Amino acid sequence: MKSGASVYHMPFKPPGSSFTIDSSTILNITGCDLDVYLVDDDKLRTKWVCRTVCPDQGITEMVAMHNCNGFGCCRVELLTLDADGVHFKFVRLHRKSNTGASSKETSQLWDRISITTDGYYGFSLRWNIRDQPTCVAAMRNWTTYACMSRHTECIDSATYECSGDATCIDGGMASTNGYNCICDIGYTGNPYILDGCSNDKGYNPIPSRTDCTRWCGNISVQFPFGLEDGCFAREQFHLNCTNRTSSAVLLREDLEVIDMNVDKGTIKLQFDAVSDLFVDFELSVKWAAANLSCLEAQQNRSGYACVSMNSKCLPVNAEYDYVGYHCQCSDGFEGNPYIQSGCRDVDECREPNICQGVCRNTEGSYYCTKCPPNTEYDAAKMRCTTTKQQILFLGIIIGLSCGFSILVLSFSTIFLIRRRSKYIQNQLRKEFFRKNQGLLLETLISSDETAHDRTKIFSLEELEKATNNFDPTRIIGRGGHGMVYKGMLSDQHVVAIKKSKVIEQCEINQFINEVAVLTQINHRNIVKLFGCCLETEVPLLVYDYVSSGSLSQVLHADASNGLSLSWGDYLRIALETAGALSYLHSAASISIFHRDVKSSNILLDGNYTAKVSDFGASRLVPIDETHIVTNVQGTFGYLDPEYFHTRQLNGKSDVYSFGVVLVELLLRMKPVFTSESGTVKSLSNYFLQEFNEGRITDIANSQVLEEATEEEINGVASLAERCLRLHGEERPTMKQVETELQTLRAKRMNSSQPDPRNGEHMQPRSLTQRSRSARQLSSQPGGSQRRYSLEAEFLSSASLPR
């Protein structure tokens, strides 16, 4: 890249009209702060395809290409077969660094633009004969017809332009653009010359050497395969042993043989990873001795592969075509059918329990006879054994006497152990209460009269009674850090109890401090912390039970379950959530950054009122500080990219995550989804690309388009775009977000929106109707599982309870 130059061009044209770019070509564009465009030279237009940004000034090319997700690298997929070429245009973005000044970047990504292929086949070209458009047209003039050999087939070179998420240069029609020739099935060679396609005669059933090496590591390389010249039956069966002390047999440079079975005609291969997105994988494939039928192969005995006695010829079929034949030992025989006397008799009598008597092996088979008199077949010993009479009466008396004595002794021992165990448990509870700073928490609660009214310190006995001694049937959620139980207190109050597995001793003081702060939060749209128990090794948290599920479950529920909320309900839920987050950021006694805002952490009560939950990842911030430096934590798809790179957590990180929730409300798509082409995509990147190109109404959900006004859709989309900006200083505060949503909802409440489906005025569905729908849902088969299990609230957090 040159100093002062902002625009760069990179055209590529195939070397002639008969050549076209092959399909499934994926390119990685590496560089910093670039907008990448695809230029159509014929139609004189450009199309934006991707963007690269570098929040981390020192990012390396290797790190950028490892993920290629927009940070230093973006990916372009080309699916075109008849384009004249590819023309890229790169425009350098002028941005300020994270520090607000133009610092000198240290990475090579700031000095150059690199284009590399990302794919197993690289960047390749196809060729075809283009003097005639189709095979039918070519066959009209045999003097210029290219398929010269007998046993050939002509194939039209049809071009199918891409669709969906693929980046195309031309339109969306299929056309023919010349033709190619191939040999018929069972024939190989060059179809473009006379007699170029010939019947398969390349198999040599007798190796020319007798001192062939047949082992590579622990793999037996049996004929017709071989490692040296003269040791294999045909050139395709020549293997390369890269290391004779370990198993590393290569069929080709990219296919490693790890096992083979010549009798079954299978070979197990291992493929190397084709990119950073794939791992090595194994594949078992069939193979044929020659591309002939069994009848054709047997007519030429000198080239027939099944040379062993007691062998047979079997066909090898692909999914749609016949491939050839292979050999197999006859029933009752095993070994290598490709060498003389390679098939040996199988001793079936060695198989366990093949006969319920005496087994006799024969050539290629076996037969069974009954056990002799006064004997019976013993399945454990796999032979006939003599029958013995046992004295049962004496054994019964001895057994009963011993059993009664042991029973009396056991009851006495259990009684004493239980008494001692109960005493030890009481002592342990007192010790845990002391270690978990129970006295300190009691002091904090007693010093705050309002906290004392809302917060309780439960005894372990109370919570055991509420959960039927932590009955496994009461589990409503489980995860890597513990379990969540549903319980009912003595005053009939339904609660959710989080029981974690482990906690660091150094976190106990922080846990007590955060419990004391959370008890002071009193907001109608935040899940209430009801209390805690400190009589266990890990403190237990008690929350109010929220019954109607999460926003994520309602958004992504199956349409057939009968539960649906209107656009007005979703707008209200978004406003309530924004108000709760704004309260945490600026109105609480101490600022709290949630750090894991997502739709599954926005719960809905019986009246479908939003309740922000899951403070396991939250962090407390003193009033005089604007951010804190902490380890990156959150949920993929919602995570603020600036926080990911700088590890500086602030209120704008919650704003970014809330912006993803707004996009979910508009598109009704999950934050990470799989496109039609199979590519895993980020919802935020997909939304920003469509928004910048003015296609928000094309991607909005049909229900949103039906119920919301254009002003509401554009307003929410514009607000989401500002929340999702890469730099935090460009995003609004949660208070500003709340104000804009409040304005949108006020306009909707003041205007009577007609229902396009029936021509009547839309009336908000009553809370009674919504509750009835929820009850109907829970009464359906499997409906109780659709109700919110609180697993998302308490166990999706990556940290232990706070």
TrEMBL record:
Low complexity bias (residue ranges): 765-780, 791-802
Domain EGF-like residue range list: 150-198
Binding site for ATP: K499
Annotated membrane topology: Single-pass type I membrane protein
Gene Ontology process terms (BP): cell surface receptor signaling pathway
GO cellular component: plasma membrane
Predominant cellular place of this UniProt entry's protein: membrane
Molecular function as annotated in GO: ATP binding; calcium ion binding; polysaccharide binding; protein serine/threonine kinase activity
Localization annotation: Membrane
Membrane-crossing segments per the record: 391-417
Signal peptide location: none
Pfam families: EGF (PF00008), GUB_WAK_bind (PF13947), Pkinase (PF00069)
Region (Disordered): 747-802
Coiled coil: none
Domain Protein kinase residue range list: 470-744
Keyword terms: ATP-binding, Disulfide bond, EGF-like domain, Glycoprotein, Kinase, Membrane, Nucleotide-binding, Serine/threonine-protein kinase, Signal, Transferase, Transmembrane, Transmembrane helix
Database matches in PANTHER family: PROTEIN KINASE DOMAIN-CONTAINING PROTEIN, WALL-ASSOCIATED RECEPTOR KINASE-LIKE 21
Protein name: Protein kinase domain-containing protein
Species this protein is from: Triticum turgidum subsp. durum (Durum wheat)
